[in-house]
Amino acid sequence: MSSENPTILLTEDNENDIFFFRRALLKASTNFPLQVAVDGREALDYLSGTGKFSDRAQYPIPSVVFLDLKLPYVHGLEVLKWIREQPSLKNLPVFILTSSSEDRDRQRAEELGAKAYFVKPPTREMVLEAMQFLDEPVPQPAALP
74-82 — which CB contacts under 8 Å span 24+ positions? Predict the structure, then answer.
């Protein structure tokens, strides 16, 4: 993980959920670069630096990943399993952000090493919890009046 310019990778296929995630980032007063993969295959390409994601200056290895489960092409749990099998990524903090509140999904995500399991919509608190896993301190937002 790079502490110079931490990057967040959001793997999400729903435009509204991407909007709500960006909004949660703003409410958490984080200005880290956000990269978005719109399906499981694109997430794998991004993380492996292949195809259109081969330029690591433009598409750096993320410092944290938010991963939806119900994705086109490759399911989120398969993406998580793949991440854990990669020596260079096995310690990458991955947070599940999904509409599924099913215990079996939560349990499988935990078995595969997800740091937390969040049910949509994303919130400021979810973002702040994930930011604790970055190498550098996260600026704390000012108290709301």
Answer: 74/39, 74/40, 74/41, 74/43, 74/44, 75/40, 76/11, 76/40, 77/105, 77/108, 77/109, 77/112, 78/40, 79/11, 79/40, 79/43, 79/44, 80/109, 80/112, 80/113, 80/114, 81/112, 82/44, 82/47
